[in-house]
Amino acid sequence: MSPPEQQPKFFVDRSLGRVAVPGLLRAAGWDLITLAEHYGVPEDEQVEDTRWIEDSAKLGWAVHTDRLERLYPPRDQMPPA
Questions:
Q1: Hey, which of 21, 32, 67, 70 would disulfide with 10, CB 3.0 to 4.6 Å?
Q2: 15 vs 6, 20, 22, 25, 77, CA distance in Å?
Q3: Sheet with strand 9-12: strands edge to edge
Q4: Is residue 49 part of a domain?
Q5: Is residue 81 a part of any domain in this protein?
Q6: Distance, CA of 25 to CA of 11 (rounded, Å)
Q7: Strand partners, 63
Q8: Which segments constitute the VapC45 PIN like domain (predicted)?
Q9: What residue numbers bound the domain in which 43 lies?
Q10: Among candidate residues 21, 43, 40, 42, the one with its CA nearest the CA of residue 32
């Protein structure tokens, strides 16, 4: 019998807030950490998008944001295919 699959940990971007949305997601059973919890307040307001995206990827956390443009460079800055 294989061990139960571990639930993914989510990193919640500042665009979703510090309290309300994370609270609802936790109530629904999500395992998450907010940008403010990880970096502290008020430092969370100064963290560059590239930093928290890289840090969350290194830690294996799935990113939850309402701003997908933060995750992908503009088309004109993408390397050629």
A1: 32
A2: 26, 12, 11, 14, 23
A3: 31-34, 9-12, 62-64
A4: yes
A5: no
A6: 11
A7: 11
A8: 8-65
A9: 9-69
A10: 21
Indicate if the alpha-carbon torsion angle 72, 74, 79, 81 is positive or negative. Answer: positive
CA distances (Å), origin 31, targets 12, 26, 28, 37:
10, 7, 9, 13
SS3 assignment, position 12: strand
In the prediction, which pLDDT does 41 show?
92
pLDDT digits (tens, 9 = 90+) for 36-58: 999 999 999 999 988 998 999 99
How crowded is residue 49: how many other Cβ atoms within 10 Å of its Cβ?
16
Q: Within 1-81, where are the H helices?
A: 20-27, 35-39, 49-58
